[in-house]
Amino acid sequence: MVDRREDLRAADVDRQFVAERLKAALDEGRLSLHEYDDRLREAYAARTYGDLDRLLVDLPPVQPAQRSQVVPASPAQGAANPTAAQEPERPERRGFPKWIFAAWSGWLTVSIIVNVIWLLTGAEGDYWPKWVMGPWGAVLLAGTINGLVWGGQHKDDSKAARRRARQERRQARRGY
């Protein structure tokens, strides 16, 4: 049995964690692209924790946002300085959910197109665009109401939140 942590075999998840830390260091400007590429190659070739630790030894440890001493830039400061690093997360928006716009934008576009066609062809007789707009709009309306009642947040958003929580737990366990 191995007594020292440095000699223990690293798992794929450990290599992935180091790769994410290196990407964060690249995004922060702590590593050049060439150095990032070299270290990333070494991270995926690493066999032990010692090999992985050597890749992070000159990088500061990651602090969770709540313990960080760095004050995040306000959106106005970020707009004034386009080279400033963007915040990794934005606070949740209130008001009109983005998914509603995404769901209804196609319907609105097609509705405008069929109405323009109807007008350009004389606008006489039966108002046929209702057969395109009506059923589709009814299905969208039911989906929208269902989404608003049962929490219409996109699944991707909740997946991203679970992924971030999982990474934070992993970092806390490893002491990074």
Give a structural overview.
The chain is an all-alpha fold. Helices cover 61% and strands 0% of the residues. The chain has seven helices and no strands. Helix 1 packs antiparallel against helix 2. The longest helix is centred in the middle third of the chain and has 23 residues. The protein is elongated, with a radius of gyration of 26 Å. It starts with 11 loop residues before the first helix and ends with a helix. About 3% of the residues have low confidence.
What's the SSE blueprint?
Layout: H1 12-28, H2 33-45, H3 49-56, H4 75-80, H5 98-120, H6 130-149, H7 155-174
Helix pairs in contact: 1-2, 1-3, 5-6
